[in-house]
Amino acid sequence: QVQLVESGGGLVQTGGSLRLSCSASGTIFNIIVMDWYRQAPGRQRELVASTYTGGIATYANSVKGRFTISRDDAKNTVYLQMNSLKPEDTAVYYCISRIPRGSWGQGTQVTVSS
């Protein structure tokens, strides 16, 4: 099973940008669907964005138009570009392989100050 490690989180002001990276220990070529989730304190983990083999991407309504998910199979990395950040985007962000099913990593903290 490919291990995934998230990075790129940090503290940013409202309106700022961050790019999260999800680096795999091996090839992601066979991962058909990769997801980014987030979990804010006291809330359930929610699906933020998904990327499908072939380039299809889907987004939660709350981030549509602000976030962009992409994958670079040559680098075994999936990215989440986050623009126009809002305080409500504050959360721990996780990536996970949906197909085939992977396991949760440690996540990366994103904090957006008002």
Your description of this structure?
The protein is built from no helices and 10 strands. The model has no long low-confidence stretch (mean pLDDT 95). It has strands at 4-7, 10-13, 18-24, 33-39, 46-52, 57-59, 67-72, 77-82, 91-99, 108-113. A hairpin with a 4-residue loop joins strand 7 (67-72) and strand 8 (77-82).
Blueprint (SSEs and pairs):
Elements: E1 4-7, E2 10-13, E3 18-24, E4 33-39, E5 46-52, E6 57-59, E7 67-72, E8 77-82, E9 91-99, E10 108-113
Parallel strand pairs: 2-10
Antiparallel strand pairs: 1-3, 3-8, 4-5, 4-9, 5-6, 7-8, 9-10
Strand content: over 45%
Number of helices: 0
Low-pLDDT ranges? none
Broad structural category? mainly beta
First-residue to last-residue Cα separation: 39 Å
- C-alpha geometry: globular
Strand order, biggest sheet?
A: 2-10-9-4-5-6
